[in-house]
Structure formats: structure tokens, C-alpha cells
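Objective 1b: paired records.
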Amino acid sequence: MDKETRITNENSNVSQSRMQLLWDVLVFQLKLTIDGFRDLILVPVSLIAAILGVLFRGHQPAQYFQRVVKFGRKTEYWINLFGQRKVEGTADEIISPLQEKVMHQALKRRWLVRTGREVNKAIDALNSNGRSRR
């Protein structure tokens, strides 16, 4: 493989790595937002459940609160914030196919592809200047 082909392949790999990073950050931010809304809702709901349990459930005051906790566990599993679960039944089932569609649509937009190339060139230039100064 000649030097020019190797550099082109390396640049393509770096470009794909950057796109993957951007996608991963976007997905993480989306999951953080969903998780945050869930927490925002669970705070008052859990307090209300505890109060109602104490007032109306007699010998089982924790019953309502435990239902809220169970719901919280299920949503935590579904959100899969850090992607630890590689199983069915998580938000990743919705997000993964979306990545392919988004990338496919993005590649159809010539201006977006052109802009991406220019941004990658600028980043590569910054990286190579930084390396040459060391």
C-alpha cells in the first residue's frame, strides 16, 4: 500500500471515529435528559406515595412507595444510561436503527458531507501542528 492510500485510509478511519464519537455523545445526552426527567418526576411521586401509604395503607405503609421504586428500576433498566446491558428491552433497541437512518440521510446531503470534510481537514491540521511542536 502506498503512502497516499495509507494516509487516505487513516483519515477515513479518524473521520468515522469522530462521527461515532459525536453520535455516542448525542445518544448519551439524550439518555441523560430522559433520566433527568424521570428523576424529576419520581421525586414528588415517591414523596406522595410515601405519604399516602402512611395515611391509608395501615400495616403496609410502604406499598405505594415500593411500586414507585419498582417503576424506577424498570425505567433505569430501559434507559440503559451507560450501555452496560446488551440485551433486549432497552432504549438502545430504538436508538441503534436510528443511527443508520440518520447517517444515511446525512450522507445524502452534499453540503453536510462537504462541511464534514472541511471540519475534519481543519481538525487534522490542528492535530498535525500540535504533534510537530512536541
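Objective 1b, second protein:
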Amino acid sequence: MQNDERQIRTLVATWMAATQAGDVDTLLSLMAEDAVFLAPGRPPMRKREFEAAAKAGRAPPPFDGSSDIEEIVVLGGWAFMRTRLTVVATPADGSPPTELAGHTLTILRKDGGKWLLARDANLLSPVQRPHS
């Protein structure tokens, strides 16, 4: 495994751990200043909007999940990654957990020798469980 791929895999592991811990400062440190997030049915969200929501207490609650990297392609100072992502959010109000799963496509940019998330598009949707 090449060094760039190893660094990107470390970024993903750090992102997941910070998300699970609700560590917004670490998440912000892993994003490019012009980062953009795309999700179905929502307008694009930029890093500054993510930060403002987190500071106002409107960020999503910490959640559990897994990110299985299916592909990483490095092209100089840019890279893209395709993953299978599963997240389980348990609301603080005692509501039942919500499980979402799907694929993501992430574009990363190397800045100052460090890989940062520049664009992220996710296709997560609710997981349908059979009724017993």
C-alpha cells in the first residue's frame, strides 16, 4: 500500500472516530476550507455552515457506524474514494435508532502534505428491516 493511500485510510479512521465521539474540532481539521457536502434532498453544505451548525448545537448527534473503503485512486495532489457507509444514530430523546446505509464518493485534496476532504457526496438511505 502506498503512503498516500495509507494517509487517506488514516483520515477515514480518524473521521469515523471523531464523528462517533462528537469531536467537531477534529472533523473541521480534516476538511479543506472550501469543503462541500452533498446529500439527497438537501442543499449543498459548506464547511462554514457545518461549523456554524455544530457551534449552535444543530449538528447531527454522535453516531456509530462503519466505512468500508471500496476504492481509492490517487492522481497527484487529488484523490477520489468510493466507500460503503453505514451509520446508526440514536437520538438523545429516547426515540428509536435510525440506520442509514449506502455509498459515498469523496474527493480529497493534498494541502501542505496533508490529505483533506474537499467534496463528499453520499447516497445514504434508511435501512429497511423485515418485520418479524
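Residues 3-21 form the longest helix (19 residues). Helices lie at 3-21, 24-29, 47-55.
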